Amino acid sequence: MELLRSHLSRVRIPEPTNRIYKNECCVSFDTPRSEGGLYVDMSSFLAFGKEYVGWNYEKTGNPVYLHIQQRPKPVPEDRPLKKPTLLAIGVEGGFDYQEIEYEETHNIVILPEYVSLPFPSVELPEKIRLAVDAVLLAEGAERKEQLAAWTAEKKKVSTYALGLQQINNGVVVPPSGWKCCKCNKSDNLWLNLTDGMILCGRRNWDGSGGNNHAIEHYKETNFPLAVKLGTITADLESADVFSYPEDDTIEDPLLAQHLAFFGIDFSSLQKTEMTTAERELDQNTNFDWNRIQESGQEVELLFGPGYTGLLNLGNSCYMASTIQVVFTTHAFNARYHKNQSLKKAFAMAPSDPTLDLNMQLAKLAHGLLSGKYSLPVQQKQEGVPPRMFKMVIAASHPEFSSMRQQALKTVDFAIGHWFNTNVEDALEFFLHFLDQVERANTGNPALDPSRSFKFVIEERLQCPSGKVAYNKRSDYILSLNIPLHEATNKEQLEAFNKTKAEKKAEGKDLDSGEIVRPRVPLEACLASFSSTEEIHDFYSSALNTKTTAIKTAGLATFPDYLVLHMRKFVMEEGWVPKKLDVYIDVPDVIDITHMRSKGLQPGEELLPETGPTGEVESTQLVASEDIVSKLAAMGFNYLHCQKAAINTANAGVEEAMTWLLSHMDDPDIDEPISHNSHAMELQSVDETSVETLISFGFHEEVARKALKASGGNIEKATDWIFSHPEASSSMDTDATSNGMQDSDPGVPDGSGRYKLMAFISHMGPSTHCGHYVAHVHKDGKWVIFNDSKVGASVDPPKDMGYLYFYERIVD
């Protein structure tokens, strides 16, 4: 006790503003449940596992620690399994994960002798008792970002229900035998509570479901409420009632009265259809992770070094899949695991290692690659929770720091709650992650593992004068369009479309086994990147006028790891986002040597540096009347439409609408257009996002234009630049001879032969709704990483990838 009293000056009583770590080691993934428990420094309030607490003592000299241990309580073998009745986790009636209960003990430990004193004890000094009580009562700084509560919100009473006007048109709804009034479908039917029309529900992302007749009827009539037939029983609260203007499932307190208006006796009806919540619950209860891309095959779970899963923190599958692939590469493995020990990373870290990217990357690499945390627990592995890493990597990107969930506003979206979340895109995270790693290694380019993904793209433009311009930019990914017209199964597609049309006319759905998808060779996608493209309104300094130029592109350098991004998400007619349902035939080995750019060739003449003296281009941008009229026709304010067109440089209706929707609440949205407003707007985007795009090799003004056109989204902005090369070419060649930049000397180069080493697949209708998994080729076999589950892949779905990772073949 005297030893403890001699160290009281090194003990602090935490203030409310102090961050207290007591659930996870800051340099490893040890927890109070790990062997040896967790030691909380009673001066810094950082936590350390048994193997690492000595490092902290050596670094800080802090001797007093609260030792927290949790040991499992015995569980009765006959504990019954309960069938879930509520879409929730950890609540009464929800999913029961049969979680082990733990008993927690506390001791005061004094280093370096590891003298242990029991807590609580009246013999302990008052300062110790107050400090420990404050730590135990405080909410831990690293407290897990609650596993998805996953509970459907309580339905709200519709504002349209109490005053609903029903039309007495003689409609009497029978107790059974219902059919859609327009297509004769006999399931997924909705009764409009205003006029009694029975119509089918919405078409699902995979083509199943209804034919959209109920929603189309609402658009024609504005009749707001509909109830799903087959869900009406004596328990009216369980009936599915949907409000179209509120775009949500709602409660209708007068439902009995509204049903009686059409002669429906709800007390005699039997349940024949699942409600939305029940369908989601059923999907998730029966969700088989193999089915994501493994054709229902039985997968052998894997454990050991390199086979550690990542716990889903809530909408974090985009991060987990990307990290699993990245840390399989030699560059990241060497930088943060083989060539850097945890102890070295901790010694180099600042006073709070939880905020240091290098420390957290080393911690993550050790957790994934050491095998220490890849142990079978109840026939599965728990995976490591990358909370501290996520907190650091997301600090400069608000989208990645949240766990926001947003239900898709599609009642008949029959793919389950697993997909009804607003998740971030794996591509966007990959680019942000590499950017942060590059920044963290500034000044040490030789240590920067992100450079193994970096390469230089060279674009060549030729105007009708015959003169040329060259432009170079660096990138981490090669984004490829998917030329559907190059599909190799056109005959099967024609037959399928014919069958589909016939079944639709009969009001029948296609079986999943009947669906035929286009198959496009990867070679065709690569050829599309290299093909010639016309650039309209290109200002030629040789002709002193705007004309049409021909653009081609190639790679000036070949990276160690080539990442191919398949552009599966497009905008279809009506500016509706759509995911291409397509297979990509991907070979295990590719050779892109023919894609290497050649630079300025003998006999080629560069475009002049500047145009004729006195040539001045007008900088005043006028809103495109075509864009403005289309937006105005959708019901938007005309002035707002003009501003949207101007602030997106007349890029198109899609870009203008994106800007408009994100600026509806701007305080100056109704102010008259100023001649200087465009220049001001271009400077009002997030500077961090601008810097990120500049780091990819884009000019600042082009980056600002793209971000404004894309609502500040970096991935969409990158996509915008790729799909609007005239924006870059005008910057690079309107007043310059070649626009060439010196290649980054740190960018790797070598052979153009590559082998497939990993791919990330995506399920769901868009990048912001769905689930990501990774397949990685390691130790001679394909392995699937699905959050915390890791297994030997039986049938890797190489043709369903979203991001493909190729490794250079070294002879």
From TrEMBL:
Residues 728-741 have a biased composition (Polar residues). It catalyses: Thiol-dependent hydrolysis of ester, thioester, amide, peptide and isopeptide bonds formed by the C-terminal Gly of ubiquitin (a 76-residue protein attached to proteins as an intracellular targeting signal). Zn(2+) binds at residues 180, 183, 200, 213. Recognizes and hydrolyzes the peptide bond at the C-terminal Gly of ubiquitin. Involved in the processing of poly-ubiquitin precursors as well as that of ubiquitinated proteins. Keywords: Hydrolase, Metal-binding, Protease, Repeat, Thiol protease, Ubl conjugation pathway, Zinc, Zinc-finger. This is Ubiquitin carboxyl-terminal hydrolase. Gene3D superfamilies: Cysteine proteinases, DNA helicase RuvA subunit, C-terminal domain, Zinc/RING finger domain, C3HC4 (zinc finger). Residues 728-747 are annotated as: Disordered. The keyword Protease applies.
